[in-house]
Amino acid sequence: KNRATAEALLLGNRGHLTPDVERDFIASGTMHLLAISGLHVGILFAFLVRLQNLLLVPRTRALLLASLVCIFYALLTDLRPSVMRATGFILLYVLGQTLYRDIRIGSLIGATAMLLILLDPSIAFDVGAWLSFLAVGALGWVSEHDPPPEDRAAPPDAVTWQEQFRESLGQFREWLGLNYRRMFAITVLTAPLVATQFHVVSLMGMVINILLIPVTTITLICGYVAIFVGLFVPPAASIVAIPFDGMLSILQFGVSLAADV
Question: At residue 35, what are phi and psi to the nearest 5 degrees?
Answer without folding.
Answer: -95, 105
